[in-house]
Recover the amino acids of this structure.
Protein backbone atom coordinates (compact mmCIF):
# COMPACT_ATOMS: atom_id res chain seq x y z
CA UNK A 1 0.00 0.00 0.00
CA UNK A 2 1.34 3.44 -0.99
CA UNK A 3 2.00 5.99 1.74
CA UNK A 4 0.65 9.42 0.80
CA UNK A 5 2.71 12.54 1.35
CA UNK A 6 1.30 15.68 2.99
CA UNK A 7 0.70 17.49 -0.29
CA UNK A 8 -1.09 14.42 -1.68
CA UNK A 9 -3.94 14.63 0.84
CA UNK A 10 -6.64 15.48 -1.76
CA UNK A 11 -5.52 12.49 -3.84
CA UNK A 12 -5.53 10.26 -0.75
CA UNK A 13 -9.12 11.28 0.01
CA UNK A 14 -10.24 10.29 -3.49
CA UNK A 15 -8.38 6.98 -3.30
CA UNK A 16 -10.00 6.27 0.08
CA UNK A 17 -13.42 6.96 -1.42
CA UNK A 18 -12.69 4.52 -4.26
CA UNK A 19 -11.60 1.88 -1.75
CA UNK A 20 -14.80 2.32 0.28
CA UNK A 21 -16.99 2.07 -2.83
CA UNK A 22 -15.29 -1.12 -3.98
CA UNK A 23 -15.75 -2.66 -0.57
CA UNK A 24 -19.42 -1.67 -0.66
CA UNK A 25 -19.76 -3.17 -4.12
CA UNK A 26 -18.26 -6.43 -2.88
CA UNK A 27 -20.64 -6.58 0.09
CA UNK A 28 -23.86 -5.43 -1.58
CA UNK A 29 -23.33 -6.12 -5.29
CA UNK A 30 -24.12 -2.53 -6.19
CA UNK A 31 -23.52 -3.17 -9.86
CA UNK A 32 -23.22 -0.60 -12.62
CA UNK A 33 -24.02 2.45 -10.49
CA UNK A 34 -21.08 1.90 -8.13
CA UNK A 35 -18.74 0.99 -11.00
CA UNK A 36 -19.68 4.19 -12.80
CA UNK A 37 -19.01 6.28 -9.67
CA UNK A 38 -15.69 4.51 -9.09
CA UNK A 39 -14.65 5.21 -12.70
CA UNK A 40 -15.59 8.88 -12.34
CA UNK A 41 -13.66 9.32 -9.08
CA UNK A 42 -10.67 7.38 -10.45
CA UNK A 43 -10.53 9.67 -13.47
CA UNK A 44 -10.60 12.69 -11.17
CA UNK A 45 -7.86 11.19 -8.96
CA UNK A 46 -5.65 10.44 -11.97
CA UNK A 47 -6.07 13.98 -13.30
CA UNK A 48 -5.30 15.49 -9.90
CA UNK A 49 -2.20 13.29 -9.60
CA UNK A 50 -0.92 14.45 -12.98
CA UNK A 51 -1.56 18.11 -12.17
CA UNK A 52 0.06 17.82 -8.74
CA UNK A 53 3.24 16.19 -10.02
CA UNK A 54 3.48 18.55 -12.97
CA UNK A 55 4.06 21.51 -10.63
CA UNK A 56 5.94 20.10 -7.64
CA UNK A 57 7.94 22.62 -5.62
CA UNK A 58 11.57 21.83 -4.74
CA UNK A 59 10.54 20.94 -1.17
CA UNK A 60 7.84 18.61 -2.44
CA UNK A 61 10.44 16.93 -4.66
CA UNK A 62 12.59 16.41 -1.58
CA UNK A 63 9.65 14.64 0.04
CA UNK A 64 9.12 12.47 -3.05
CA UNK A 65 12.84 11.61 -3.19
CA UNK A 66 12.61 10.43 0.43
CA UNK A 67 9.42 8.42 -0.07
CA UNK A 68 9.78 5.09 1.78
CA UNK A 69 8.31 3.16 -1.16
CA UNK A 70 10.82 4.38 -3.76
CA UNK A 71 12.84 1.54 -5.31
CA UNK A 72 15.94 0.64 -3.34
CA UNK A 73 19.33 -0.69 -4.44
CA UNK A 74 18.30 -4.33 -4.32
CA UNK A 75 15.25 -3.67 -6.49
CA UNK A 76 17.43 -2.03 -9.15
CA UNK A 77 19.81 -4.97 -9.01
CA UNK A 78 16.95 -7.46 -9.31
CA UNK A 79 15.53 -5.56 -12.27
CA UNK A 80 18.73 -4.75 -14.17
CA UNK A 81 21.55 -7.07 -13.14
CA UNK A 82 21.85 -10.79 -13.87
CA UNK A 83 24.00 -13.16 -11.81
CA UNK A 84 24.75 -10.51 -9.19
CA UNK A 85 27.46 -11.61 -6.73
CA UNK A 86 27.81 -9.31 -3.70
CA UNK A 87 31.31 -8.49 -2.43
CA UNK A 88 31.75 -7.51 1.21
CA UNK A 89 34.17 -5.69 3.45
CA UNK A 90 36.79 -2.96 3.22
CA UNK A 91 39.70 -5.32 4.13
CA UNK A 92 40.56 -3.04 7.02
CA UNK A 93 37.77 -2.82 9.59
CA UNK A 94 34.30 -4.15 8.73
CA UNK A 95 31.54 -4.58 6.17
CA UNK A 96 29.25 -1.54 6.09
CA UNK A 97 25.71 -2.53 5.11
CA UNK A 98 24.78 1.03 4.05
CA UNK A 99 26.79 0.55 0.84
CA UNK A 100 26.37 -2.64 -1.15
CA UNK A 101 28.38 -3.71 -4.16
CA UNK A 102 29.18 -6.62 -6.37
CA UNK A 103 29.76 -8.03 -9.84
CA UNK A 104 27.01 -8.93 -12.28
CA UNK A 105 25.91 -8.71 -15.89
CA UNK A 106 24.03 -5.71 -17.24
CA UNK A 107 22.40 -6.50 -20.58
CA UNK A 108 25.10 -9.02 -21.37
CA UNK A 109 28.01 -6.88 -20.17
CA UNK A 110 30.00 -7.65 -17.01
CA UNK A 111 29.89 -4.68 -14.62
CA UNK A 112 30.59 -3.65 -11.06
CA UNK A 113 27.53 -2.24 -9.29
CA UNK A 114 27.88 -0.17 -6.10
CA UNK A 115 25.20 1.77 -4.27
CA UNK A 116 23.51 2.93 -1.11
CA UNK A 117 20.87 0.71 0.43
CA UNK A 118 18.36 2.34 2.78
CA UNK A 119 16.22 -0.72 3.45
CA UNK A 120 12.51 -1.27 2.93
CA UNK A 121 11.17 -1.82 6.47
CA UNK A 122 12.16 -0.92 10.00
CA UNK A 123 14.42 -3.94 10.52
CA UNK A 124 16.28 -3.58 7.23
CA UNK A 125 16.57 0.20 7.59
CA UNK A 126 18.29 -0.26 10.93
CA UNK A 127 20.55 -2.93 9.44
CA UNK A 128 21.52 -0.63 6.57
CA UNK A 129 21.69 2.44 8.83
CA UNK A 130 19.16 4.24 6.59
CA UNK A 131 21.74 4.37 3.78
CA UNK A 132 24.17 6.52 5.79
CA UNK A 133 27.58 4.95 5.33
CA UNK A 134 30.48 4.87 7.76
CA UNK A 135 34.13 5.10 6.63
CA UNK A 136 34.33 1.37 5.99
CA UNK A 137 31.48 1.73 3.49
CA UNK A 138 33.38 4.26 1.40
CA UNK A 139 36.58 2.22 1.71
CA UNK A 140 34.66 -0.80 0.45
CA UNK A 141 33.36 1.26 -2.48
CA UNK A 142 36.90 2.39 -3.34
CA UNK A 143 38.16 -1.19 -3.10
CA UNK A 144 35.47 -2.43 -5.47
CA UNK A 145 36.15 0.39 -7.94
CA UNK A 146 39.84 -0.52 -7.99
CA UNK A 147 38.89 -4.17 -8.50
CA UNK A 148 36.68 -3.16 -11.42
CA UNK A 149 39.54 -1.14 -12.88
CA UNK A 150 41.89 -4.12 -12.64
CA UNK A 151 39.50 -6.34 -14.60
CA UNK A 152 38.23 -3.64 -17.00
CA UNK A 153 34.66 -3.70 -15.70
CA UNK A 154 32.51 -0.57 -16.12
CA UNK A 155 31.18 0.76 -12.81
CA UNK A 156 27.51 1.63 -12.20
CA UNK A 157 26.66 3.45 -8.98
CA UNK A 158 23.21 3.95 -7.47
CA UNK A 159 23.15 6.91 -5.10
CA UNK A 160 20.45 7.39 -2.46
CA UNK A 161 21.58 8.76 0.89
CA UNK A 162 20.92 11.68 3.21
CA UNK A 163 24.69 11.85 3.65
CA UNK A 164 27.52 10.04 5.35
CA UNK A 165 26.90 8.91 8.93
CA UNK A 166 28.00 11.72 11.31
CA UNK A 167 28.53 9.62 14.43
CA UNK A 168 31.54 9.91 16.73
CA UNK A 169 32.84 6.47 15.82
CA UNK A 170 32.70 7.27 12.12
CA UNK A 171 34.64 10.48 12.65
CA UNK A 172 37.21 8.66 14.79
CA UNK A 173 37.78 6.16 11.98
CA UNK A 174 38.36 8.89 9.37
CA UNK A 175 35.04 9.63 7.71
CA UNK A 176 36.26 12.68 5.77
CA UNK A 177 39.39 10.87 4.54
CA UNK A 178 37.36 7.84 3.44
CA UNK A 179 34.94 10.02 1.45
CA UNK A 180 37.85 11.88 -0.14
CA UNK A 181 39.58 8.60 -1.08
CA UNK A 182 36.41 7.23 -2.63
CA UNK A 183 35.96 10.43 -4.66
CA UNK A 184 39.63 10.28 -5.68
CA UNK A 185 39.19 6.68 -6.80
CA UNK A 186 36.19 7.68 -8.92
CA UNK A 187 38.43 10.18 -10.71
CA UNK A 188 41.40 7.83 -11.01
CA UNK A 189 39.98 4.61 -12.48
CA UNK A 190 40.32 4.01 -16.21
CA UNK A 191 36.92 2.36 -16.80
CA UNK A 192 33.60 4.15 -17.45
CA UNK A 193 31.71 5.13 -14.32
CA UNK A 194 27.98 5.79 -14.72
CA UNK A 195 26.49 7.44 -11.63
CA UNK A 196 22.73 7.30 -11.06
CA UNK A 197 20.99 9.53 -8.52
CA UNK A 198 17.82 7.59 -7.78
CA UNK A 199 16.57 9.24 -4.58
CA UNK A 200 18.32 11.64 -2.26
CA UNK A 201 21.89 12.66 -3.08
CA UNK A 202 23.18 14.23 0.09
CA UNK A 203 26.55 15.96 0.53
CA UNK A 204 29.92 14.25 0.20
CA UNK A 205 28.27 10.96 1.05
CA UNK A 206 26.69 11.10 -2.41
CA UNK A 207 29.59 12.70 -4.31
CA UNK A 208 31.87 9.85 -3.17
CA UNK A 209 29.92 7.53 -5.48
CA UNK A 210 28.62 10.05 -8.02
CA UNK A 211 31.81 11.41 -9.60
CA UNK A 212 31.13 9.71 -12.91
CA UNK A 213 31.66 10.08 -16.65
CA UNK A 214 27.88 10.37 -16.91
CA UNK A 215 25.62 11.47 -14.06
CA UNK A 216 22.02 10.39 -14.54
CA UNK A 217 19.23 11.60 -12.27
CA UNK A 218 15.67 10.41 -11.88
CA UNK A 219 13.06 13.11 -12.43
CA UNK A 220 12.07 13.47 -8.77
CA UNK A 221 15.47 12.79 -7.18
CA UNK A 222 17.35 15.60 -5.42
CA UNK A 223 21.06 16.37 -5.07
CA UNK A 224 22.64 18.93 -2.74
CA UNK A 225 25.68 19.75 -0.66
CA UNK A 226 23.53 19.67 2.50
CA UNK A 227 19.96 18.76 3.37
CA UNK A 228 17.41 21.61 3.26
CA UNK A 229 16.89 21.17 7.01
CA UNK A 230 20.62 21.46 7.66
CA UNK A 231 20.92 24.52 5.42
CA UNK A 232 17.97 26.20 7.16
CA UNK A 233 19.47 25.47 10.57
CA UNK A 234 22.70 27.19 9.56
CA UNK A 235 21.21 30.19 7.75
CA UNK A 236 18.09 30.87 9.83
CA UNK A 237 18.76 28.82 12.97
CA UNK A 238 15.54 26.93 12.34
CA UNK A 239 14.91 23.70 10.43
CA UNK A 240 11.34 24.88 9.94
CA UNK A 241 12.55 26.99 7.02
CA UNK A 242 13.65 23.92 5.09
CA UNK A 243 11.19 24.77 2.33
CA UNK A 244 12.86 28.16 1.79
CA UNK A 245 16.25 26.47 1.73
CA UNK A 246 15.11 23.90 -0.84
CA UNK A 247 13.84 26.70 -3.09
CA UNK A 248 17.18 28.53 -2.92
CA UNK A 249 19.54 25.56 -3.19
CA UNK A 250 18.61 24.33 -6.71
CA UNK A 251 18.27 20.72 -5.56
CA UNK A 252 15.99 19.38 -8.31
CA UNK A 253 17.02 17.33 -11.32
CA UNK A 254 15.71 20.02 -13.66
CA UNK A 255 17.77 22.77 -12.00
CA UNK A 256 20.90 20.63 -11.92
CA UNK A 257 20.57 19.66 -15.57
CA UNK A 258 20.31 23.34 -16.45
CA UNK A 259 23.44 24.02 -14.39
CA UNK A 260 25.18 21.09 -16.16
CA UNK A 261 25.82 19.26 -12.90
CA UNK A 262 23.92 16.23 -14.17
CA UNK A 263 23.91 14.98 -17.74
CA UNK A 264 20.50 13.40 -18.11
CA UNK A 265 17.14 13.42 -16.35
CA UNK A 266 15.11 10.21 -16.61
CA UNK A 267 11.34 10.63 -16.49
CA UNK A 268 9.41 8.80 -13.79
CA UNK A 269 5.88 7.47 -14.01
CA UNK A 270 3.10 9.89 -13.12
CA UNK A 271 3.11 10.12 -9.34
CA UNK A 272 6.76 9.15 -8.89
CA UNK A 273 8.88 6.00 -9.09
CA UNK A 274 7.25 4.62 -5.94
CA UNK A 275 3.97 4.19 -7.82
CA UNK A 276 5.51 2.20 -10.66
CA UNK A 277 8.97 0.93 -9.68
CA UNK A 278 9.29 -1.43 -12.65
CA UNK A 279 8.84 1.44 -15.12
CA UNK A 280 11.42 3.63 -13.36
CA UNK A 281 13.94 0.79 -13.18
CA UNK A 282 13.51 -0.06 -16.88
CA UNK A 283 13.84 3.60 -17.92
CA UNK A 284 17.01 3.98 -15.85
CA UNK A 285 18.39 0.82 -17.44
CA UNK A 286 17.91 2.32 -20.91
CA UNK A 287 19.71 5.49 -19.84
CA UNK A 288 22.62 3.51 -18.35
CA UNK A 289 22.97 1.43 -21.53
CA UNK A 290 23.08 4.57 -23.69
CA UNK A 291 25.65 6.20 -21.39
CA UNK A 292 27.91 3.13 -21.44
CA UNK A 293 27.70 2.94 -25.23
CA UNK A 294 29.32 6.39 -25.43
CA UNK A 295 32.58 4.88 -24.15
CA UNK A 296 32.66 1.68 -26.19
CA UNK A 297 36.05 1.37 -27.85
CA UNK A 298 37.58 4.21 -25.83
CA UNK A 299 40.88 3.59 -24.09
CA UNK A 300 41.35 4.02 -20.35
CA UNK A 301 43.29 7.25 -20.64
CA UNK A 302 40.47 8.91 -22.55
CA UNK A 303 37.84 7.67 -20.09
CA UNK A 304 39.75 8.98 -17.06
CA UNK A 305 40.56 12.34 -18.65
CA UNK A 306 36.94 12.76 -19.77
CA UNK A 307 35.77 12.38 -16.19
CA UNK A 308 38.36 14.78 -14.81
CA UNK A 309 37.67 17.42 -17.46
CA UNK A 310 33.94 17.11 -16.82
CA UNK A 311 34.27 18.02 -13.15
CA UNK A 312 36.96 20.66 -13.66
CA UNK A 313 34.60 22.43 -16.08
CA UNK A 314 31.78 22.73 -13.51
CA UNK A 315 31.19 26.29 -12.39
CA UNK A 316 33.35 27.90 -15.05
CA UNK A 317 31.77 31.07 -16.42
CA UNK A 318 33.63 31.13 -19.73
CA UNK A 319 35.03 34.63 -19.12
CA UNK A 320 38.14 35.33 -21.20
Amino acid sequence: MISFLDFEKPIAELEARIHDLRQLDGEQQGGADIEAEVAQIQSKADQLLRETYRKLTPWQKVQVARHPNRPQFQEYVDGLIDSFTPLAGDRAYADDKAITGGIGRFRGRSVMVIGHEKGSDTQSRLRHNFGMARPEGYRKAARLMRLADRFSLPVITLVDTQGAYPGVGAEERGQAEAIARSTETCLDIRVPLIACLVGEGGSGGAVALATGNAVIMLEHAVYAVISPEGCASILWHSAERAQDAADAMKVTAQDLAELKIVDQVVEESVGGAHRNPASAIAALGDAIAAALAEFDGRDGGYVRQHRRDKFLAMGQLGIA
Observations:
- The longest helix spans residues 32-54.
- The chain has two domains: 6-55, 62-312.
- The two ends are 56 Å apart (CA to CA).
